[in-house]
Amino acid sequence: MIQFPELNRDARASLEAEGQFPGAWETMAQLERVADTALARLRARRTELAAGGPATLRALSLVDRLLWTERVEYLDRDDVSDARKQRIVHALHRMNQGLLSYHRFLHHLRPAIEHVARRERRPARVLELASGSGEFTMALGRLAGRKGLPVRVTGSDIVPAYVADANIRAQARRLPVRFVELNAFDLLSTLTPGDFDICFIAQSIHHFSPGQLAMMVAQAGLAGARHFVGIDGRRSLLMAVGLPLFTALSLQRDFVHDAAITARRFYSEAELALIADIAAPGADVSVERAEPGYSVLHVRY
Ligand SMILES: C[S@@+](CC[C@H](N)C(=O)[O-])C[C@H]1O[C@@H](n2cnc3c(N)ncnc32)[C@H](O)[C@@H]1O
Known about the structure:
alpha/beta; 11 helices
């Protein structure tokens, strides 16, 4: 309802006709600026177009703008302790388990894994960005061991405590996975080009600004990945209301606090496509609606 596919298409087409899109860039600093500006222009043009439309469209456009928040989740705050953040990522893990989210993530990731494994005649090397509790990385590692899924997987996060904790759990479970500390939009300073075939990120894209997401997508390609798969909550009124209510079942106030912010910050599918088009010119970019509740960004470099 607040994806505005036609409005986004018209806004993007009119900006392209004015020669404003897709912006050119050479350095990461330029890319960040270009993507941030592009998103701001898309949103502004969308608002202008909606203002000339019927009352329902004007009202929905207003709701969408009111929904957006600059508030920051506890997970992203420096003044919140690691222990408190860990309780949130583990609450998220329990929700993921309850909603069978890991099965759904695998469903969207599997074609890329099989494509790489077929082409290269070896297991696909997956790097999960922003892996939080690390439990999806571990689930993939378990599938590789038990069911022969042709994959080798590494998890990563910017929070050292999650990385250390996930490595301890993976070792205790004897899983063939490892976790490393990594800033998802500064991959090139850490990765050796050719280390990974697939970059994957789940339920985290809304933590990043348009410019940061663009740098992540561009750097994954520059580091030699053939695929980027990003799954995040789908921007909708239902999610904005339903997600915080659902997480209230966890009885964990911090988790509900973050969920209420999360649901207001999801990107629309047209926005994800624009950011990826800017970041990976010439790549095959698509964004899939994956109900209930997700949008999936695929970039094939
Ligand atoms: C909502 S959690 C998602 C965790 C996990 N992917 C899941 O689905 O359960 C968001 C994660 O993004 C991580 N994060 C935020 N900024 C990051 C950055 N710049 N680089 C890497 N990870 C980051 C946080 O530490 C957190 O673990």
